[in-house]
Design a protein that fits this description.
disordered N terminus, single chain, mainly alpha
């Protein structure tokens, strides 16, 4: 309870008036000394007479604060830091695992893509070779068929030519016989006509 100096002085004055034997004593209710005990002018925390108790309370307060820090606050902070450290380590491990899986997936995809490209090239080469072989076989078959047809046509032409020449010889012989008969009025043997036609054909 805070008591002003004026109030303390008035209280002391009244107390001295009522009870002179109480002069110089501290008022039990207010805890303020009588007027004769005032006047030092020193702030209580800076008063050297209180240093021992202040140091004692400082040591007690520091000890309690140290116990509070070491037993409660620091373990909680350490637990929080350890939990965060473990969580960060788990996150890093998970990220590393996921990165490894992604790298493996990319490598597998690139390998499958290279295999598919190689297979595609192989299929294209096989198809090209098969088409080339088929074209060659078809061309050979067509050429053989054309050769056969040409040979047959040539044989047919030769036959027709031979027949035509034979017919021409017979016609020439008949024509020559008729011409000789008309010109000279005589007859000529077939042997002589045939010899004359052959001689004429040879020239």
């Amino acid at each position: 309870m805070f008591v002003t100096a004026a109030y303390a002085q008035s209280t002391t004055t009244e107390g001295e008036a009522h009870d002179p034997a109480a002069a110089g004593e501290v008022h039990t209710e207010t805890g303020v000394a009588h007027e004769g005990e005032h006047g030092t002018g020193v702030f209580p925390p800076f008063d050297s007479t209180h240093f021992a108790s202040q140091l004692l309370w400082l040591a007690i307060t520091f000890g309690l604060f140290y116990l509070l820090m070491s037993k409660v606050i620091i373990p909680r902070i350490g637990g929080i830091l350890e939990t965060r450290h473990d969580r960060i380590a788990q996150d890093l491990d998970e990220a590393s695992r996921l990165k490894g899986e992604a790298d493996a997936a990319i490598a597998s995809y690139e390998q499958e893509l290279a295999s598919a490209r190689a297979k595609g090239h192989s299929i294209a080469d096989t198809a090209r070779e098969a088409a080339k072989a088929k074209a060659t076989a078809d061309r050979t078959a067509v050429e053989a068929d054309l050769t056969k047809k040409i040979t047959a046509a040539e044989a047919r032409i030769a036959e027709i030519k031979s027949k035509a020449l034979a017919d021409v010889g017979a016609i020439a012989e008949d024509t020559a016989t008729a011409v000789v008969k008309q010109l000279i009025g005589g007859t000529v043997t077939k042997a002589e006509i045939a010899a004359a036609v052959k001689a004429s054909a040879g020239n």
